[in-house]
Amino acid sequence: WYLVSWLISLILLGVATVVGYFIAQIVFSVVIMDAMSRITENVVTGREVPPPNMPFFKHLFFLVRQEIPRAVLPILLALALMVLGWLTPLGPAMTILSPTIAALFLAWDYTDLVPARRMLAFNARFELFRRHLLFHLGFGLLFLVPLLNLLLLSFAPVGATLFHIHLVRPDGVRPSTA
After folding, report:
1. First-to-last C-alpha distance (Å) of the chain
2. CA-to-CA separations, 86 to 52, 62, 154, in angstroms, rounded
3. 98-117: pLDDT as tens digits
């Protein structure tokens, strides 16, 4: 029963984390950060590339549906790393790998605002994330510094939108510098 109680606790931890993360994503990512991203795009380019013309609630439902895999993927990976960290020989490796993955997914929360608003499919957005993995790592590392992250996270939607405006075209391809 002792092992069963640990497994049930792990499952409940995962479910509670996914639900909490998903609610936070809806409130902050879909509403507040998207508004900051739109304002930044308007200020920098003079216009906003609008999402396809559809009713507000249909667009909101699409964004929420797109958040589900983005919410589940990092949580499942974090839980897998936590379980691997329980194995003593892998513990030291997890102290490096866990913050690295956390930084990547923190950055992806912000850099995914523009592609999600433009209604790119999840696979295309994940490919964009994968192609710019080192950028995401650099963008997300400072989010792991306590207290500094409070300041930086409030400006992250602006920086991520600038990333898409200056470095990535709407189709996700990096323009040539020549």
Report:
1. 65
2. 47, 38, 34
3. 889 989 988 998 888 888 88
